[in-house]
Amino acid sequence: MSLIKWIEFPSLGDERGNLVALEGLKNIPFEIKRVYYLLDMQANVPRGFHAHKEIVQVAICVKGSCDILMDNGQDKEIVTLDSPSKGLLIDVMQWHEMSNFSQDCVLLVLASEHYDETDYIRDYPRFFQEVNNENTSTQ
Ligand code: TYD
Fold first, then answer.
1. Is 130 inside a domain boundary?
2. Number of C-beta neighbours around residue 45 at 10 A
3. What InterPro entries does UniProt report for this protein, alphabetically (predicted)?
4. Which position among 50, 52, 96, 114 bears the catalytic label?
């Protein structure tokens, strides 16, 4: 699984405006059980700082822009989300940190499961250990 996986959504817009459609098990690679959105963030107050054990998500910046650092315990990369027609897949065991929010940023997130705090790993050393133990046991 590559660290950065973008999903492109076709724009169905016309002269009346833009329209993007998201469908579970079609252009979103799981059944969508939860949708949430982040807005009114402060540019200098990052958030996220966790990984999920089983929940898979797709993040789409439907307005404005923000950066997201993705980290699989081996590689790290910062990408910018700035398009409503492009989603970033946040797979299991991918540590992520969102930052540098534009004032108008609205970040929409689709999730494969209902909210479950027990699915979160919020402690970086624990994440690093779990993901690297997994990596060595599958080699
Ligand atoms: P949190 O996951 O810490 O936000 P972020 O990762 O963006 O920093 O969530 C903030 C609070 O909202 C926390 O108390 C959990 C709650 N929450 C829900 O109740 N349902 C949800 O779907 C999400 C994502 C968070």
1. yes
2. 9
3. QdtA_cupin_dom (IPR008894), RmlC-like_jellyroll (IPR014710), RmlC_Cupin_sf (IPR011051)
4. 50
Distance, in Å, from the CA atom of 95 to the CA atom of 123, rounded to the nearest integer, reads 10
Using DSSP bridges, classify how beta strands 34-39 and 86-90 pair: parallel, antiparallel or unpaired.
unpaired
> Which of the four pLDDT bands, split at 50, 70 and 90, describes residue 130?
very high
The residue range of the domain holding 31 is 6-10+22-137
Ligand 1 pocket member 115 (CB < 6 A): yes
pLDDT digits (tens, 9 = 90+) for 107-128: 999 999 999 999 999 999 999 9
Asked, for residue 99, whether it belongs to a domain, the answer is yes
102 occurs within a structural domain: yes
Using CB atoms within 10 Å of the CB of residue 67, give its burial: 0 to 12 exposed, 13 to 18 middle, 19+ buried.
middle
Could you give the CA distance from residue 12 to residue 122 in angstroms, rounded to a whole number?
38
Q: Which two tokens stand for residue 30?
A: 């799981």
Q: Best substitution site from 108, 115, 120, 127 to test ligand 1's pocket, by max atoms within 8 Å of Cβ? A: 115
Residue 50 catalytic? yes
- Kindly report, residue by residue over 22-47, the tens digit of the pLDDT: 999 999 999 999 999 999 999 999 99
Supply the pTM of this predicted model: 0.95
